[in-house]
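Researcher: Next entry in the queue.
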Amino acid sequence: MAFPSVPRSVLVTGCSTGIGEACARMLRDRGWTVYPTARRAGDLQALEAAGFTAIELDLADSASVQAAAAKVLDLSDGQLGALVNNAGFGQPGAMEDLSREALRYQFEVNVFGMQELTNQFIPLFREQGRGRIVNVSSVVGRVALPFLGAYSASKFAMEAISDALRVELVDSGVAVSLIEPGPIITAFRTNAVEKTDEAIDTGSSTFGDLYTREVQRRRDRQKKVGFINKPPEAVGNKVIHALESSGPRRRYGVTPVAPYVNFVRRFAPACLVDALFARSVRKKRG
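Model: Structure for this entry, 286 residues:
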């Protein structure tokens, strides 16, 4: 199905660093008017210094979501062409160690806030008969990883929401695409360490020693770009295609890990997948 081109203005969430920052910069270089969002004052100031009109957005706060949407619609004169839902975080930890509050916050940001923001723009997209919605998911939205169960669950939810929304918007001129990155060199690992410290009582956990070793490993080890690990720009290239192509794809895998995960998801029996991950857990526990 061919989709109409859209006004070259886009809201990109989560632009303080990494994928969001790369997308904002790459799209601006291609002539798009980009409205990037961030949550912290320092990040907003950095975006402004880089020449962007930055929007404050906290996806866990409904009032912030609605205020950000209203500001974007005002700045774009109601002619926004696209939305890139990139903002989010990953809550690490074994499921048994995560409180109701930790699980709720994971979904408030990655799912509820994301969809509430999207819903602010769907009426506009329907009215103008065109629009693009790009949701940045993850390969763990296809296969759940141990100790990333909450994050995986939020990305599984994003996948389901996107699939439903894409069909609900049939004949509207609005395209919905999912980006499924594998390992990308960003601050995600560092942020995960902070979330481990904040949300988990490692001293009382069965996996306490594992957390301690993993946190230290992530602090000490800096991954480098290579065959497996890709820079944020690799995701940006897929986002550009999803926004500019007349035939945007439903899903875009990023890094060689993505097709491998899709193969496992489709063809590997659950017992084999469980066995592979169980071996990894045993190895990590020593």
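Model: The mean pLDDT is 94.
Researcher: Noted, moving on.
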